[in-house]
Design brief:
By secondary structure, the protein is α/β, with parallel strands linked by helices. It is built from 14 helices and 15 strands. Helix 11 crosses helix 14 and helix 12 packs antiparallel against helix 13.
Amino acid sequence: MAKKEKRLLWRATANFEESGFSWYQLEVGDVVTYKYKTEKNITIGQFGLGYNKDSGDSPNQPASSVVCIFQIVDYLILPDSQTNKAVLRCVHKFDKPISLSEINNWFNDGSSLNLQGGLATITDTQVDIIIDKFESIIPKLSPFINGSKIFLPIDQREHPLQVMLYGAPGTGKSYSISCLIKQSYPSFHEYDDNPYVFRTTIYRDYSYFDFVGNIMPITKDGKISYEFVSGIFTTALFTALRNRARGIDVYLILEEMSRGDIASIFGDIFQLLDRDDTGKSMYGINNKSIYEYLILNGVLKAGYKVIIPSNLHIIGTVNTSDQNVNVIDTAFKRRFDFKYVGVEPIKTNTNDYVNNFSIDFTDTNQYEWARLYQAINHVIINDLGLAEDKQLGPFFLKDKGNDDLNRDQVANKLLHYLWQDVERVSYNSGSLFADSIKSFSQLYYAFENRENILSKSVIEQYGKL
């Protein structure tokens, strides 16, 4: 009789103060990085229980409960050799969390499941009971749990993204990027430590070597050697190649693409931007530094050219109102889909405005941001006769959660932009500001003293919205 193969199951305990996240915050498809000691035998493909010590925000999110099932899909090697990070992907979330006491009732020997802190394996005698129970509850996971095969909880993108978002300042280009990423990672936020989202901002002196990498002096054991240090593109490419068989989307975000010489920054990488029907580069390149780096790290076989895989998505942003910026040439533009991000307000599923908040302009006049910026835009186009790229977007100001802080950003950001970059470049007789305002200092101190600074046109238009 064949010996039954030993099955393995992990558990990862979340305590927000210690681990920095809650399993209740994650949705199916989301990933989280989890620190573990290097002596643990982490294997990609293994499953585990996501246990929450704390309760969630709602009454149906109790403490001391198994919230979800995760799968180990990757691991990150940190400079500190004693600690690494496993990447855990939520593959199933229970409609009703399973309490620790309920799980303990599954065991006939009176034992209890140890869920105290950290990432660890569950004891052999308990593993089979738990897996058999979950196979009856979630039959679709059965062949994956038993074989440690990668389970795709949500569909990957059919086609890779290679898109450039453009629009006026504050239109929500970054918000749009987050929405695109959420199709792969449903609970993604800009401040997440998602290891598959890489972001950089292009600037005047940003170079090919910043983007791709450079040969740098490295000190090891008191000796200096020269090694290739990867830039953000090469790091993102390595990550995508490493994870292309695991259903993991990797995003490379390039903010303010028109602020640098983008053709020079990409250099020979430009050749990789042509994609075939499968989503990978049509033409490979012979780049010695990238080639050797990818071979050294085990994601490229010798003799193969460097290509971009279908799971690497490149998203850029361009602010159309920026002055003194570089022109992006036509050949480069053809490799990207251009998507205009307009100034219209964004609404939630409940029909409320996203990023709407009130600002006290005077002691008696309070304005809602979502209506105010639209009123200002109307005057910019119709009274000042300026182009639409001078308008404001819904995220030009962001709610600070405090009226004093919100007033500060009006005084130091909004008024400066409207005076310097809008009002002063118009040759029409219309104005955004009250007739008594003749200089920026007058404008600034009038607002500080809570006097009315808005023109009749802005106030009238606000009342119509």
